[in-house]
Amino acid sequence: MQPKNKNFVNPSEIRAQFSKHMSDMYRKEVPLYGDLLSLVEDTNQEVLEKSTNTKAHLERTGEMKRLSMERHGAIRVGTPSELSTIRRLFAVMGMEPVGYYDLTPSGVPVHSTAFRAVHEEDLQISPFRVFTSLLRLELIDNPETRQLAKDTLAKRQIFTPRVLELIEQCAHDGGLSQADAWTFIHEALETFRWHTSATVTSDEYKRLHNQHRLIADVVAFKGPHINHLTPRTLDIDQVQAQMPARNITPKAVVEGPPRRNCPILLRQTSFKALQEKVTFSNQSSEAGSHTARFGEIEQRGAALTPKGRALYDELLNASRSELKEFPNEKNAEHYTEILAKNFSKFPDTYKEMNDQDLAYFRYFVTDKGYEALNNTTLPTNLKDLINAGFIEYESLVYEDFLPVSAAGIFQSNLGDNAQAQYKISSNQTDFQNSLGTEVLDELDLYADTQKRSIVKCGEILNLSLFTA
Ligand code: OOG
Ligand code: NI
Prior knowledge:
The protein is α+β, with helices and mostly antiparallel strands. The protein has a domain at 11-302 and 408-419: Uncharacterised protein PF07063, DUF1338 (2,3-Dihydroxybiphenyl 1,2-Dioxygenase, domain 1). It is built from 20 helices and 11 strands. A 5-stranded mixed sheet has the order 2-3-4-1-5. β2 (96-102) and β3 (110-116) form a beta hairpin. The two termini are 25 Å apart. Nickel (II) ion binds next to β1 and β5. The site of nickel (II) ion has 7 residues, from β1 and β5.
């Protein structure tokens, strides 16, 4: 999407630059992240050399171009006002809130959304996204700790004065000039930086931490430090297997669907949080420690339709029930077997997934289709055009997150004793009130992209192909 005024920078370019700067900052802060990037890069290279199919698929979908810049980050904010300003900050980079994720059923006192670009052309320029969680203070049961958290958060300002001005200016003018965009990127980065000095005393930290580790992480620091930055791999099992050789210990189980010929949705694994030295406000040197930041990798596959997603949820739930406990180190192998067995019910060719309406696709006219334009009578509906080879399709990549997987990632880094039972559950309305807008439904976005591709085929072939 082009900006309104031609002197303004395309928001997608701001996002691409911001994502690159964030990656550089995080690499300096967490050297292990650099090791992870090179492991992922090596593996991707190997996969592309070995599998010409994968390479051809990624070239046709355009994912090849974005593979090396592909990453997501995660942050946790403390108040509704922080969340709504974060929304406006991400809007400068063309990122909108997509989806609602409730983590309370898994004992994590937050609810979340993902900020990302929504149009396929913009995703192509930069697929950068940020999983953003809001702490639910109402879930802190101890009234004094709740008040301590509230008071501490009320005192902090997580944005620089200049970034606040630029957010305002961009909303008002409809864009930023090159110079302002540059300043914006550097000022915005400050919000996500790691700070070694805490804003609370060691005693207060302990109280917050005893309530829930996550609460200490959100409340005790100057801002919502980026807690991980996740590159995209083409073979997560291979990276997982090679991690130990590079001194990285991954969590026992890869979250999400099992390994397949046609990957679906999202598979993720992470490695343990770093223990970092921090200085509490009553101390003069780095005498304390805090763990929050960790590493994660992901492999992305096809976006599923509501029908496909229902089948995924059913098979995942069946696997979890069969295992009878949370997946962990001891039952990892057994869980992998259960998962593979249950997911054999999920068709594993793109043709079946297309025929059965399980995934979203991008359709395009083939060379044969172009050649036929002037001298052949073409079929008039999509299925027949596909069967006759005039149109082909490629699955759309899943751009979002999975609540059960996200919970698993949170848990693995919070430690097992961090599980809690919350009586209050999902509250999307509350979240949206804090955010200052509604979240977009990711399924609508995939359906829109699919529809645009069918309409375009119709235009090329002079046919009216799209039927709702
Ligand atoms: C977010 C955890 C979820 C993912 O990729 O599902 C997540 C967090 O720990 O803040 O990043
Ligand atoms: Ni993540």
